[in-house]
Amino acid sequence: MAVKQTAGRDQLGAFAPKFAQLNDDVLFGEVWSREDKLSLRDRSLVTVVALLSQGLVDSSFRFHLESAKKNGITRTEIAEIITHAAFYAGWPKAWAAFRMAKEVWADEEAEQPHGGVFGLGAPNDAYAQYFIGKSYLKPLGGENGVSAANVTFEPGCRNNWHIHHAGKGGGQILLCTAGRGWYQAWGQPAQALSAGDAVVIPPEVKHWHGAAADSWFSHVALEVPGEDARSEWCEPVTDEEYARLG
């Protein structure tokens, strides 16, 4: 299908009508549209490198960077393309190209890996029956009876209502490390959580915690030593209860 382009006529139609017609109808309408010979993505790659090699990092270069992004070239790929071309086209030209490419791909800045500073860990399959959504667990070891694990929830994931029982001592401490989530004790309003927050959960308090609907969430769960400590898993947090949190 022909690539529709009107920039030539829009900008030069009155001043240079033939040039405008060749730009819109031939260059884009015929050459760029030969997708059975070379994909739009690959044509974007060739065009970006050709312009970069000439040092033409002007508005037309930005247009072709934006087209390259639209045609499927990712932030990681454009960085590698410009890096590779720098050795053949020239280092200063690559610097100029990078300044513009960073602006075009600004909304795709590399995300920190899910799981925060401790990493994602493995799927939390052993406790999956007590969670709505998918969670991940990375044990962090423990000494002197204190155990710790980094728990990561995908967006919308939460655990069931549960209680940490203990004859003496016990309970849990949550140290939030990444993303946004929720904690709620039975009969109390839900508490929004984000990185840097800490929650002390006494024993015998029925509660739940998990991610916000639109965010991954990680926290370190510290088990407070206690005698006869055990966890009782209760009913799930319903979709209606969860939706009311906003």
- The number of helices is 7
Please summarize the sheet with the most strands. 8 strands, antiparallel
Give the oligomeric state of the chains in this entry, treating copies of one chain as homo and distinct chains as hetero: single chain
Q: Give the tally of β-strands.
A: 14
Write the element-wise H/E pattern from the N-terminal end onward.
Answer: HHHHHHEEEEEEEEEEEEEEH
What structural category do the secondary elements indicate? Answer: alpha+beta
Beta-strand residue percentage: 25-35%
Quote the distance from N terminus to C terminus: 44 Å
Structure description:
Helices cover 33% and strands 28% of the residues. It is built from 7 helices and 14 strands. It has helices spanning 7-12, 17-31, 40-53, 59-70, 75-89, 91-104, 239-243, and strands spanning 122-123, 131-132, 135-143, 146-153, 158-159, 162-165, 168-169, 172-185, 191-194, 198-201, 207-211, 217-223, 226-227, 230-233. The strands form 4 sheets. Strands 1, 3, 4, 8, 9, 10, 11 and 12 form an 8-stranded antiparallel beta sheet that branches. A two-stranded antiparallel sheet has the order 2-5. It has a two-stranded antiparallel sheet with strand order 6-14. Helix 3 packs parallel to helix 5 (75-89) and helix 4 (59-70) crosses helix 6. The radius of gyration is 27 Å and the shape is elongated.
